[in-house]
Fold this protein.
Amino acid sequence: MNLLEKIGIWAVDYVDAAQLHVRAIAGGWRVPEHYAHGEPGKPTIVLIPGVYERWNFLKPIADRLWEDGYPISIVHGLGYNLRPIIDTSDRLAAALSRVRANPAGRIIVAHSKGGLVGKHLMLTHRESLGIRGLVAVCTPFAGSRYAKYVLGQTLRAFSPTDDTIVLLGRDSSVNSEIVSIFGPFDPHVPDGSVLVGATNVQVPVSGHFRILHAPDTIDAAADAVGLLANRPAGHGEDPVASADDAFGSDDGTTVIDDSPSSDAAPASVSTPTEATAANAPTLAQDHPDILVSAVALVRDRRVLMVRARGRDVLYMPGGKIDDGETAMDAAVREAREEVAVGLVPGTVHQLFTVVTQAHGEPDGRQVRMVVFSGVPDAEPRPSAEVSEVHWVTTADADRCPPAGTEVLKQLAALDLID
């Protein structure tokens, strides 16, 4: 992407941001009453917008999640989210702790700075608030190098050297419960939103604001919530308070302090009615795209790729996930079948997910590839339908289908390969 293209994306993105502000004001701050109701067993979605934003910026994603059966909770009293990250997180925790939690838990869906607030909230109050995960769109987990060029502490706080950014970056204990969604180019987060240890999903939409209402982003967010909702909760004691402790009214709205227009006001929560525990559908059932697992075996800053008999492209060792099989189990099985290695127990970790056009399929059909790292217990060699193995870098991208190319880009972004 050249400089002119980046400038064009930047200009369009600001126009889009202005339109979002107008729509938010024109639509008012009232939370749709139907957000209060969800299907039994579905976690509550807690929305956290970015700086200079209202919750309405996330409305396209929230609408889709509500259609999928998730009750939606809106946080009021944060104004335009101008306070420091830790302060905002603490105020959110206080507000959420004073309302009755959904027995199925909570999942945070956030944009930009909201993702940093969400991660801090998970690090400090995950168990007590029943937080099962975070879906973050365009979040500067490593900060933004542009922060030093702006005036005012609100935006300068996104500097990569800011104490809070460094603190959040050093603690990776909750990264595996975070899904980071981003596009090829973000004018506000030039170094990207890849978070090591998280599920990283790149969608084919550039920008920082227009990405929020792109169909690909909305689909990716819905898939991410489904993924987190189907993982074991693992939060210890049930965080649900007694009915006598709840502040909910008949319309499903909880108001701790009804002053959403003030940045100095305490946070309040519009909370849904409670859902009863039940099993939600699995991720693989939620979309018609091709869902596969792959394993990235890295050494000497190169990653292993294979070529199948009768094919002229290189691809990651991996394949479709069988019925009743987890993505991790599929990656382990495919490594054994295609390159004749086992993966040492305890070394298998999810790196990211790529979503792109499926090779050899009709236009519009996508492959969603969940990529795992692991340590092989033997030297990889061709097996089954694989005829050759190659250790490659990004210089070999032209030999790969779209998904392989995206994997190489993300591995390079993680500084694992050249």
